[in-house]
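[Discussion] Sanity-checking designs against the backbone

I'm trying to build intuition for which residues belong where. Below is a structure token string of 373 positions. I'd appreciate it if someone posts a full sequence so I can compare it with mine line by line.
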């Protein structure tokens, strides 16, 4: 019998009540100073706890990992305490919440860096065709081009691996059910993985095996804190046929299938809990090839989660084909905190308010109406 969005799913030792997921969504609502999760964030996640599975917004593992103003961290005692009130509220509703561990690498600006230093990256190659968000006054900011990064020394890389491990420890102390490593969208782990951003000559650069080494070491490190089945990894395997698409963060690989299927096989051998695939979601973006979906399912035998402009019909299609086990609904879930019930009952959906996606108040964050008002 084919699964539906409402069929329970095993994820490691967890049993998810449905296959509707809240994927990681940057909302820029943390308390300042200190990028501390607050009561408004607690309410936001608690409202959406009927999801079978939830992942937090990107959460920086250290101060240098921040690329956008007002995003939360998980590297101070105050941040851990802030997240603890979130996880307790979600668990009180019977929900499951993983913390997405994030380091932006080169996708940052000196204004966001400690002592206004240059951002760090595998190689000193500036990010183009992307903007970062810096604060210009309390509650105000602007989008600017990222600053040119400096290349990491080889000995610094092991220090970063330890920062990921420490962030996993902090996430466990904060009460999360597991963690997701952000290896997508042109951020640090993706920068090590990509031929466009990794021009290193040490054992972290060159061959695909070497470019995967940083991810492998981070997975090994965090799996000493959480069971590997409580660890997920998010990729954005972009396939493109136009030059316009190829400039998306500069990280469309020459052979994306080989790159990401090799990575998936490695992670399968490491027995991680799930792969999260962030599909292209802008207007006229290239679709994920069906041949890749099939090959990914062969390469990775645990849970596969997908997200990117999904509606109920498209979600059911990928489930019925066996290409995925969990489906993330991004902006739809933002606007509909009771989304699982609405989908199950075939009820109308609230439209999303685009102007309030990033930063601001409870408006467009925790004030979307539910079925019951």
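Best answer:
Here's mine. Compare freely.
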């Amino acid at each position: 019998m084919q699964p539906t969005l409402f069929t329970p799913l095993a994820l490691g030792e967890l049993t998810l009540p449905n296959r509707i997921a809240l994927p990681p969504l940057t909302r820029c609502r943390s308390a300042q100073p200190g990028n501390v999760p607050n009561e408004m964030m607690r309410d936001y996640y608690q409202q959406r706890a009927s999801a079978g599975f939830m992942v937090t917004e990107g959460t920086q593992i250290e101060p240098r990992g921040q690329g956008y103003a007002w995003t939360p961290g998980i590297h101070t005692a105050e941040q851990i305490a802030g997240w603890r009130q979130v996880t307790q509220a979600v668990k009180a509703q019977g929900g499951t919440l993983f913390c997405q561990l994030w380091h932006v690498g080169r996708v940052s600006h000196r204004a966001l860096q400690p002592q206004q230093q240059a951002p760090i990256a595998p190689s000193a190659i500036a990010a183009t065709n992307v903007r970062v968000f810096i604060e210009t006054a309390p509650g105000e900011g602007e989008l600017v081009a990222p600053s040119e990064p400096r290349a990491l020394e080889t000995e610094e890389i092991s220090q970063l691996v330890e920062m990921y491990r420490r962030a996993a420890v902090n996430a466990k102390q904060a009460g999360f059910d597991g963690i997701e490593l952000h290896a997508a969208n042109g951020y640090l782990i993706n920068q090590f993985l990509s031929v466009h951003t990794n021009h290193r000559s040490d054992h972290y650069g060159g061959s695909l095996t070497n470019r995967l080494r940083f991810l492998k070491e981070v997975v090994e490190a965090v799996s000493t804190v959480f069971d590997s089945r409580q660890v997920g990894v998010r990729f954005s395997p972009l396939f493109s046929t136009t030059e316009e698409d190829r400039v998306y963060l500069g990280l469309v690989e020459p052979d994306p299938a080989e790159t990401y299927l090799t990575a998936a096989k490695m992670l399968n051998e490491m027995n991680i809990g799930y792969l999260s695939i962030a599909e292209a979601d802008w207007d006229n973006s290239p679709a994920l090839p069906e041949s890749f979906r099939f090959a990914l399912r062969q390469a990775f035998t645990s849970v596969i989660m997908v997200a990117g402009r999904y509606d109920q019909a498209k979600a059911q299609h990928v489930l019925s084909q066996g290409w995925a086990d969990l489906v993330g609904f991004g902006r739809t879930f933002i606007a509909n905190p009771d989304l699982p019930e609405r989908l199950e009952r075939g009820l109308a959906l609230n439209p999303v308010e685009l102007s309030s996606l990033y930063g601001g108040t409870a408006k467009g964050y925790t004030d979307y109406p539910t079925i019951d008002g």
